[in-house]
């Protein structure tokens, strides 16, 4: 007879998958959603919105797969392995995405262990894929950069804005999320030059400063001079100039869309070239100009020198033709 303290659809059940000694947990879709909501609200309390959003999207994928199993998933190791196989073979996700999705399931299972719903974590034995030792996105060549610059119409307010964004990504190494979070008051001028205080992915405060070389700050200031709104310190650094959303802070989707438009207009939108390619090109520009590797590491806010060395090994790619670069990147 089921324990009164535990819903019937969560009772450990005998299952024919996995080790016979491994306890199984069977839940309904409704109960799974309740577990996920509790996990996001309790286990991830205090985490950034971006982190919670990543877990939610990952677990949404798990829910979709769960429905396809018609009750055949019971939180056992073999079940998690089947989910990994689905991500790799059916969804054909990248190694990094598979690892991210499995991490979300592993943390959810650990939450169920901590609650006492599971005796052990069935996802612990299912490892994520090894992260690549090089970036899969292509970088831009010098020819690409020249073509991209020609698409930026410095005679319009939107053109000035897009030029400022491109310079921050391509020549300051900023990511999209750092750009959309930036306020006017985050710009700082010191005896050492101009800096922008940034709040990176997964961070809660703007506790890092990115140096802005003269061409970069010039591009940003040119755009700010063209703005018609009052520029108080809390104003977004980049805003929309559309009729319906004029003055509103740009979001990452808008930035990504604008950069993709310019990449297409420049004729350099090819496999592997994304808006992130601009950010990945910045350290190559610096290294090709002789900047010290340690300074590049600091500018890119890399946690370890190993990450910076990925770019160091790519020195010279910036000057190569796109066709040759495609062959190198495979």
Instruction: Provide the domain count.
Output: 2
Instruction: Please outline the major beta sheet.
Output: 3 strands, antiparallel
Oligomeric description of these chains: single chain
**What fraction of residues sit in β-strands?**
under 5%
Widest sheet, order of strands: 1-2-3
- Describe the global form: elongated
Outline the low-pLDDT stretches.
1-21, 132-136, 322-330
- The CATH H-level superfamily of the largest domain is Intergrase catalytic core
Describe what this molecule looks like in 3D.
The protein is mainly alpha-helical. It folds into two domains: 8-115, no CATH class; 142-329, Orthogonal Bundle (hpI Integrase, Chain A). Helices cover 50% and strands 5% of the residues. It has 13 helices and three strands. It has a three-stranded antiparallel β-sheet with strand order 1-2-3. The protein is elongated. The chain starts with 28 loop residues before the first helix and ends with a helix. 29% of the residues are buried.
């Amino acid at each position: 007879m089921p324990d009164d303290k535990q819903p019937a659809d969560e009772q450990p059940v005998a299952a024919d998958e996995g080790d016979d000694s491994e306890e199984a947990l069977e839940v309904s879709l409704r109960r799974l959603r309740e577990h996920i909501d509790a996990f996001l609200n309790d286990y991830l309390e205090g985490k950034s919105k971006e982190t919670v959003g990543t877990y939610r999207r990952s677990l949404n994928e798990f829910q979709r797969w769960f429905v396809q199993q018609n009750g055949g998933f019971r939180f056992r190791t073999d079940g998690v392995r089947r989910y990994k196989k689905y991500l790799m073979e059916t969804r054909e996700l990248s190694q990094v995405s598979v690892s991210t999705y499995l991490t979300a399931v592993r943390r959810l299972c650990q939450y169920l262990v901590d609650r006492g719903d599971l005796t052990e974590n069935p996802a612990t034995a299912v490892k994520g894929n090894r992260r690549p030792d090089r970036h899969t996105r292509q970088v831009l060549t010098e020819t690409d950069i020249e073509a991209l610059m020609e698409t930026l119409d410095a005679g319009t307010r939107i053109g000035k804005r897009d030029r400022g964004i491109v310079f921050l990504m391509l020549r300051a190494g900023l990511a999209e999320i750092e750009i959309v979070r930036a306020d006017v008051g985050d710009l700082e001028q010191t005896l050492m030059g101009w800096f922008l205080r940034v709040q990176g992915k997964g961070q809660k405060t703007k506790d890092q400063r990115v140096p802005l070389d003269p061409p970069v700050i010039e591009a940003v200031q040119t755009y700010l001079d063209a703005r018609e709104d009052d520029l108080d310190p809390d104003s977004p650094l980049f805003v929309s100039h559309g009729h319906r959303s004029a003055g509103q802070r740009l979001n990452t989707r808008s930035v990504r869309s604008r950069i993709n438009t310019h990449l297409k207009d420049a004729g350099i939108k090819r496999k592997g070239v994304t808006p992130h390619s601009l950010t990945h090109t910045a350290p190559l520009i610096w290294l090709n100009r002789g900047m010290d590797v340690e300074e590049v590491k600091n500018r890119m806010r890399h946690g370890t020198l190993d990450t910076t060395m990925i770019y160091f090994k790519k020195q010279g790619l910036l000057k190569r033709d796109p066709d040759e670069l495609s062959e190198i990147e495979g």
